[in-house]
Amino acid sequence: MDGWILIPIFLPVIAGAALLAFRRGTAGKNSDTGMEDGMSGKAQPESAGELKRLHLLVGAVLFVSALFALAAAWSGERQVTLFYLMADIPIYFRIDQVGALFVTFTSIVWVAVGVYSFVYMKHEGRERQFFGFYLLVYGVLVALDFSGNLVTLYMFYELMSLTSMPLVLHNRSREAVMAALKYLFYSMCGAYCGLFGIFFLYKYCDTLTFTAGGTLNLLLLGENGGLLLVAVFMMILGFGVKAGMLPMHAWLPTAHPVAPSPASAVLSGIIVKAGVLAVFRVIYYVVGPEFIRGTWVQTAWMSLALLTVFMGSLLAYREKVFKKRLAYSTVSQASYILFGLSLLSEAGVTGALLHSVFHAFIKSALFLTAGIFIFQCGKTRVEELRGIGKRMPKTLWCFTFAALALIGIPPASGFISKWYLAQGALEANVGVFGWLGPVVLLISALLTAGYLLPVTVRGFFPGSRAETSKEKAENELGAQAGQEDAEAVREHGGEPALGMLVPLAVMAALAVLLGLFPGALIEYAARIAAAVL
Amino acid sequence: MNAIVMVFVVLFPMAAGVLVPVLPFKNRTRMMIYIEGAVLFNSVLVFAMLLHQPREAFVLLKFTGNLSMSFRLDGLGTVFAAIVSVLWPLATLYAFEYMKQEGHEKIFFMFYTITYGVTLGIALAEDLVTMYCFYEMLSLVTLPLIMHTLSREAILASRTYLYYSMGGAAFAFIGVIFILIYGTTADFVPGGVLDTARVGSPGLLLLVYLLCFLGFSVKAALWPFSSWLPKAGVAPTPVTALLHAVAVVKAGAFTTMRVTYYSFGADFVRGTWVQSVLLCLTVFTIVYGCSRALKETHLKRRLAWSTVSNLSYILFGVALMTPLGLLGALCHMVFHAVMKICAFFCAGAVIHQTGKNYIYELDGIGYRMPKVFAAFTVSAMALMGVPGLCGFISKWKLVQAALESENSLACVGVAALLISALLTAIYMLSVSVRAFFPGGNFDPAGLEGGKDPNWMMLLPLAVFVAVMIGFGLHAQPLVRALESVAAGV
Amino acid sequence: MLDFVQNFPCFSIVSCMFAGIISSALKGKGAKILNLGVLLAVTVMSALTLGYVMDLGESYIYVMGTFSAPWGNELRVGVLEAAMALFFCVIMLLSLMGGQQKLQEEVEEGKQKLYYIMVDLLMSSLLALIYTNDMFTAYVFVEINTISACGLIMIRQWGRTIEAATRYMIMSLLGSGLLLMGLVFLYGLTGHLLMSNIHQGVVHIVEQGEYHIPLMVAIALMCTGLAIKSALFPFHSWLPDAYGYSTVASSAILSSLVSKGYIFLLIKIIYRVIGFDVIQQSKIINVLFVFGLAGMIMGSLSAIKESNIRRMIAFSSVAQIGYIYMGIGLGTEAGMTASVFHVLSHAVTKSMLFIAASGLLQASGDSTDFFDLTGAGFRNKTAGAAFTVGSLSMVGFPMFCGFTSKLLFARAAVDGSWKMLPALIVLAVSTLLNAIYFMKTVIRIYTPLREPAREKRFRKIGIGEQPMNFVALICFILLNVVLGLGAEPLVALLNNGLKMFA
Asked: Which of A171, A375, B66, C338 could share a disulfide with C409, CB 3.0–4.6 Å?
């Protein structure tokens, strides 16, 4: 019986749902205040003891489920059929190599960010709710990674959109609610585009169960190839929404600045990858890469991906709000992965998988840094970060390592994945993209350096305080929020608590170390790539 | 013996309803017990009958010539009768609590109970004329229910409703007559009864079919005959929920199914210009209803527009003219009944507890009425078609049928279904989000007094949520049963 | 050898006429009783005649006096005639019963005698129109009919009724003039006045192919004349005032009987005088069809615009007459059956509507304002119920007689000719239009009144207050339902009657 692999799915889901459902129960003695707590804009902190219990519970659940998830992922191929949605469509989980890979980095990041948020969420409040949804999303993500067929994947994909939405609107400001709705509706739009394709695939494929190399039945297809190409393209676009691919990338820069930083971290690091995973599954496990090789779909896909890579970097370069800059960076980086997948070559797929892993750690680290800046001194804009390295050198060092990895400076991890991506572009027979791809990647890397390194440089070397009056005015305007509680900033200006620093350090270290010792990972990714092509 | 039961279940609620204002009840509770008892008894009887499946027909009375009023149970009728008889006792229970504040209860319950019988009459009708008679009766007995508040708005709404339905019936009547003349029999026979030898010019007959379909689809609120439905939202919520999401509108859909698959025959229409016209209209309505719902800020009217759109899912399935299409339509008929009645009951609970009608007033109400809004959210997700809830199943079946039909318009329909799903997500979830996550400057003082209603309202909601999830996860037996119904045509 | 029963038609006509004459010597109360007695007697006689003819299985000819054809005067009695006579008597009785109370209020004490005289004369002329087999006799009774109808309108002495009566008189006389001219043409062509003989003459002419145009002109003249008299659109301008303002019993009688008498005469001309085949070949029938359709729509449209409920019902008559002409215009047996059935069903429904409306108005302070009817259905329950039933029947709601006639019309229309689609669509549209104004009124009368100021002016009318009215309305409702649910024997009877009619 492989039923136990359901534990990492259902344990967090049940625990999260329970946390949400019994919100009033804990405050039952004084139900009125309990409701106020839930409703009012200014959150009332829960009592310290309650908080401790909450953290303990969440931590335990997270840890146990992550352990089970990893155990399930690395104990060989396992499968379980939950129930039948329709006669020939089961809700069915099967752990294969890709799923194992995704579940692993998801779990690591999730636990680390969870620890981080125990501290961080103190200043956001409504922790019960946050952790409730946090656990829910984790369960859903594990299920998504374990999905054994397209409908199961789709089911958890939608559930993920729904459950992760409350993470975005956590602080309840009008912008946050609007951003959350935007996020939700973009995701839904994408999901329905995907569903559109699923309908067609159901008709023309032998089975929707994931099979390396695809299950398309060309006999059944007959003359309808053109139609199916359209459907496949819709699916790429649709699932690409989650991965922030142009033209549906706009939710990312809207959602990230308003979401709590841990939420941003997992959104960028992990949930974006769900889109990648969906595209990967569709193209390599259902449709089959051969079907779209050389068609307009591949061309369009590559063009869109490259365009997104470039535009994302450019927009990030021009952006002044720190978290928004990171969000644009995610747009760009996720499309590296998509570009790698679109090449339909072994090196490309290997690069894409590697970049998925690396980017998960790197981007989480970056967002965690941004969170620390906000938590410790309420700074959200890049200009305000001048000289921050003096006050929190450790944090900034972590940031720097992660940034170097993202830019792709050897020997940090980003270099390896980009190398494979470029190699894939060159070896795949894709005409003009063969050289255009690497060029764009290079330009984007330069831009990445351009938007990340100045933070480090200015953080450590603020230079003279003699700013032009204009800059000063801007600075003041931007720092208004910070000035309001300037006292507090000065008080808390130092290094963050260990609970925040350790997860950050772990992420940053992973980002670098995986670059130094990539052998096993590369081999693993290459095995997957070889299997699907 | 068994066949008499059919007549009994049709006539019994009518009689019981008529007796409501006549009988001297000591107090309200007695009346409630009487009505709920009668309705429950009838439902039990219906189920006993559905399980026994009496095959023979029962002739109640004869009109002129070969026309008669007769009843017979078949697959399609079973489906509709089952939906109706499950929902009616629950809705009645809900209505007891809800109608406390509306007044004129006796009159209300009289017509409410009579409608039960009439709806069953449509389900069990053996032939077109009987069905037509009950269809007309349905318009009439539901009229006082819409008028209930007797406000100017209600009167206007009831008038609009009546004009639309009677006009629709008048055009449907043309089709009925043609079947009487050109059909081998007026009874419902899977595959149609059209006597092809006698059909002189199929062109004319197609036109008549179109008129007939459109006539019956007025009750199913097909565009351009949809505006009565949102207006009728002024009725008390048990009416909007049960009648304007289930009984009346589904009767419209049901009659179109009968006419299409059992009288004219789908083969006759498939591939003709009429099918294209119908597909275009239904596809348009699917999107149109959703967009109007999006624009609407009145919660019940928004749900009503959503119903418009969802009913066209059913009609779209019907218009595919294939057994698979009918299967999809039937699935959606069953599931939409549950989803929408649940959503309406939630809206009604809000009105009952707080008197709030507009969506912008609902900020933060999810904390006062968590159970109600949990149910609302589930039904919202089901309507969107989240897998694991029942809406996905019917959507899947519809799309499958559309793709199998190899009709290019059907592919457009698939796109329309998905656009509609997205719009549904927007207009339903934005309500949930508002309720659970009010903006930061939200003032809880405005919500004083609102709390979850009592068990009479919550029990139906709980049942519906259970059904939505249950069928979402395990729809196989139901789908198989519906398949056997659809396979007959 | 004559059976005794065979004399009954003649007796009915004559007794009605004598009742009128005797009444002039009686007082109001006596006239009323005499009228009632005669009507009852005629009802019984008609019923017996009907039974007799049904047994006989064919129509018989009753020669008046000793002159035989082609000089003498004849009555011809078949199932259809007897049925019509019976039916007309019943409606007449019920209408008088229902309108009696109002009559006493609205008509001066001294004039009530006159009213009953007029009713007697009207009845006798109607019976004569039904039974006669002689064109000239028909013409004479048409004139008597016109005069007595005028009297019925005018009896309520009020500016509007006098104007209405004058208008009615002018239009009616125009109609009878045209009828007379047509008759003269026919006489010139065939040299006969007895219907059967004219028919032979016409057949002969048609066979010879002679006098085509004069024959057509004659048909056209007669049709137009009777169309004017029975208020076919566009000759309906006299109708709303005449029905809308006269006393309620008159409205009921006029709308349900008088115009129907003319229509019956027209059917007789079509079948018996000219011959169905000839009529079918002439295009005149198509003209009737088209005007019938136009009437169905235009009558209803006018009714929608009308706010005075009595006038609204009057306009609805225009539409219903349109139905009948549409059925005739279809030019088929089935269409004719439907038309004849509709004559009956409309008579039942329309007189009920008029009486019910009057009851509702009474409960609303006799106001002509539509909004004063608010809640009238609660104040006068019988009238409210009857009005609802009548409205539903008019809309063609199943189980009421309007549905049966709609069904018959629609089935008749589906004959594959070019008339099929227009007829069906107009039928549907007209149903919708009917629904609009009738259901609007029904909703109005069942909307409770919430203005106490207005409520004071109104009064409740219980059943005990107007027992006759109550009984009449209940009878009407029952008739309506019976015709709606069990029309089968009647339709068979009418079919049978039409067969032996020619």
From this structure: C338
